């Protein structure tokens, strides 16, 4: 078999050898994308600034250099493959999907330039944009795969670099599209365009790394999926890091650790008192605690009981299908709708005043659908062999459910409850509508000490439960949005930091509890 025929038959092979030169060339765009993403993300969140040099170079110069290097490597990779200087197995074409993608990029670029820069409207911008887009798509589709992947990607990077070099787009650039009340800033667009262009280059590099063909497309798909997963995690990490950066210092200011058991954390243990050194959020923390406790007490027994009935007793038919649709719909209902329900139905029955009790009930209604859904799934996952073995021993159905089914499903039930608690603990809209009180409270609600017996039904009252309260989400809303704590942004960021700790602690508790029950079941 000739060398050309061998190359043709190996295009769709699952593995293929490739030269070290190709490996080096193709890995460079991937590495440049990682660098561009780190630097660009740091710029977007404010850790890096265009006014401050990076390793002695202006930040705009760094972005331009990354784009030029990525584009040059991609063009060199495509040329080396086409001239057979490196061993690759490209297909005859990149396919319709890739060519359509590059065509859409060209259509968008020409359309924006014609409509917004030159002021053309209607068909006057759509016609040239369509012509250029179709032309680019056709050229990419006609070209061999190695050129169709690397050349458009490289030219895209070089085009963005040219816009930076010619100062068409720079940090001082602004863009206000006609008909839209928004202004795009160069300080945002420069890192975003750099990340986008190097991302496309990284995808092309992943294709080239495996020598194009079926294996190259698989590598490109893995790059896209892996990058997407990494971006989701990185965005979460950046969000947490940003909150910690802005709120940690204020939150831990003045912490005292003395001999014995003396420990004082002013921001967490103080109320909002003008006569103390550090204004704190202790009333909001206590309010959040009681809201969560009340919601759990209401939702968990009802939810688990409903799940047991629907799974173990009710016949699977139209009734259970309707309930399943209803619970899924309730879980996806916006929280403000629950808040409006509480305001219309509960608040008038509690003296037309916002109260902790109304907030507990509303948050309990929000938590209930998730408890039902997760508990049903956890109970369904228990093997039928457990039930059959219990029945064979003469154990009643209820005793089987109580002693076998529910303990086996407990990890899933606990996980669902903790996830739901993490959500309701951070809800603002329902609390704002049915519970909110003055966020500048000095004292926390004394729920346990407010119970009193009366001579009339219901023979017991609790003034704290029937009074409004603050909570961490509402405190954060008041601190940042309405400025109720003055002009110091550190208070708001510190509140966000504590709220983040509270929510994350619920997830940690959930993970630990799940591990405990799993070990207990396996023992």
UniProtKB/TrEMBL annotation:
Keywords: Cell membrane, Membrane, Transmembrane, Transmembrane helix, Transport. Coiled coil: none annotated. CDD domains: TM_PBP2 (cd06261). One of its GO terms (cellular component) is plasma membrane. The keyword DNA-binding does not apply. It holds the Pfam family BPD_transp_1. It comes from the Archaea. GO terms for molecular function: phosphate transmembrane transporter activity. It is a multi-pass membrane protein. Its main location: membrane. Signal peptide: none annotated. Residues 285-510 form the ABC transmembrane type-1 domain. Belongs to the binding-protein-dependent transport system permease family. CysTW subfamily. PANTHER family: PHOSPHATE TRANSPORT SYSTEM PERMEASE PROTEIN PSTA-RELATED (PTHR43470:SF3). This is Phosphate transport system permease protein PstA. It comes from Natrinema saccharevitans. The lineage of its organism: Archaea, Methanobacteriati, Methanobacteriota, Stenosarchaea group, Halobacteria.
